[in-house]
Design brief:
Blueprint (H helix, E strand, L loop, with lengths): L1 H56 L4 H37 L2 H7 L4 H49 L5 E5 L2 E8 L5 E11 L2 E15 L2 E15 L6 E12 L20 H5 L6 H5 L1 H13 L4 H12 L6 H31 L6 H17 L6 H40 L3
Antiparallel strand pairs: 1-2, 2-3, 3-4, 4-5, 5-6
Length: 423
């Protein structure tokens, strides 16, 4: 009888712990969705405003504008997801602390894993999402966006530019045509390119036509001349006559070292593993291919460290609001330090192949150290850092943090009510 009673009690305790874990996961997931949606909305709005001028001023359809912004969405999600994950974990843990729920969970005899497991599960979901976006979807969307912008530039030259008018297509890029031929060609073409402050280019040609090569579009000039004017103390003017010259219209959006070639971020991951040695872009800057390849895979290593850093600093019961704010400040500082180191190593990878392993070493080391703290090892170190590194700053930021937390709690409650409202 005693053994049966212990089994029943054990099953009841396991069921209770599973219920607590599901509750914590739900709170963290809802906070993640809210933060993710807010950040993506803000970034999407900035992207939309940037593209709005391109679409409206050049007579493009609203559906094309929506298509452009959707192509940019995978990149926004991949950038925002780790940040939203960290913010949602910190907020959820701080809220559980403020409502004394962590204290109750600990007092009920729950293991440390009961609190950690829901956040780890959410971190694994975001890791899978980030890996899929970075390795597979982002290159396709970037390449598709390049093709759409090239079509827009081509449409501008063939349909929008009026004979006799000077039309600025890009900042510092101005086109003028005398008339339009019956076959759609441009006659009497003048192109002024002042985008480079150190060098100004002027193209004059008798005829211009739009040519397409796959997803790229080019303005092909015939029977003309190129005037190259350099600025500065050693200013020089050079004239080059040509029978045929092409201008890559995709370079109007982003001038590359070798115009006309596909940027590494727009290439499939398989192409980065085995780049074509005869590719002009690869021969000019091979380090960018290496850095882009490691950047895609290393991005999947950052969601879990962000979860563990939040758990290490904010995942334990705190008795006062000042201690909680100190923990939040230290968590933000630790996460910012890890990301800054990652960005530095990413830039170094372009120049030095030996820096490539550090793209993975930094998040793995952060994961190991923060994981040890999150599991309770070295717990004395975290309070020591908070007392000596964040106490005074916490005192100054406590009122601001309380207002932000209160506002976020209000939004979370509204979001929960909308979600639970019957259709």
């Amino acid at each position: 009888m005693a053994g049966a009673g212990r089994c029943v009690a054990r099953r009841h305790l396991t069921s209770t712990m599973n219920t607590i874990s599901r509750y914590i996961f739900k709170q963290a997931f809802l906070a993640f969705c809210l933060v993710m949606g807010t950040l993506i909305g803000i970034l999407w709005l900035t992207q939309a405003l940037t593209r709005m001028t391109l679409v409206v001023d050049q007579g493009q359809a609203a559906l094309l504008f929506l298509k452009i912004t959707l192509y940019a969405l995978p990149t926004l999600v991949a950038v925002v997801a780790p940040i939203a994950l960290f913010a949602s974990c910190v907020h959820t843990l701080n809220r559980l602390n403020a409502d004394s729920e962590l204290v109750v969970v600990n007092a009920a005899g729950a293991s440390r894993w009961t609190t950690i497991a829901p956040f780890i599960a959410l971190g694994l979901i975001v890791t899978a999402l980030t890996a899929w976006l970075g390795i597979f979807l982002m290159p396709q969307s970037a390449y598709g966006l390049r093709a759409i912008l090239a079509d827009i530039r081509a449409d501008v030259l063939t349909n929008i530019i009026e004979p006799g008018d000077f039309t600025t297509v890009d900042s510092g890029m101005t086109f003028h045509i005398r008339e339009r031929g019956r076959d759609g060609s441009l006659l009497g073409v003048l192109v002024s390119d002042d985008r480079n402050a150190k060098e100004r280019l002027t193209y004059i040609a008798e005829k211009g036509t739009i040519a397409r090569d796959g997803d790229s579009a080019y303005l092909v000039l015939e029977n003309g001349s190129l005037q190259r004017r350099s600025t500065g103390d050693d200013a020089q003017n050079n004239f080059v006559a040509f029978e045929r010259y092409s201008i890559d219209l995709s370079s109007l959006e982003s001038r590359a070292t070798n115009p006309g070639s596909v940027h590494p971020r727009e290439r499939p991951t398989s192409d980065l593993f085995h780049p074509d040695p005869t590719d002009g872009y690869y021969k000019a800057i091979p380090g960018r291919f290496r850095a882009e390849l490691h950047r895609r895979f290393a991005a999947a290593f950052y969601p879990l460290p962000s979860v563990l850093i939040a758990l290490a600093f904010v995942g334990f019961a705190r008795t006062t609001r000042q201690n909680r704010v100190s923990a939040v400040i230290m968590a933000i500082g630790a996460m910012a330090g890890v990301r800054v180191l990652g960005f530095i190593v990413d830039k170094l990878t372009v120049k030095y192949a030996a820096a490539a392993p550090f793209n993975y070493a930094i998040p793995i080391a952060a994961m190991a150290i923060a994981g040890a703290f999150a599991l309770g090892y070295g717990r004395t170190a975290v309070p020591f850092l908070m007392r000596h590194g964040g106490a005074r700053l916490a005192e100054a930021l406590l009122p601001v943090w309380e207002r932000i937390a209160a506002r976020f709690d209000t939004l979370s409650e509204r979001f929960s009510r909308v979600r639970g409202r019957p259709a």
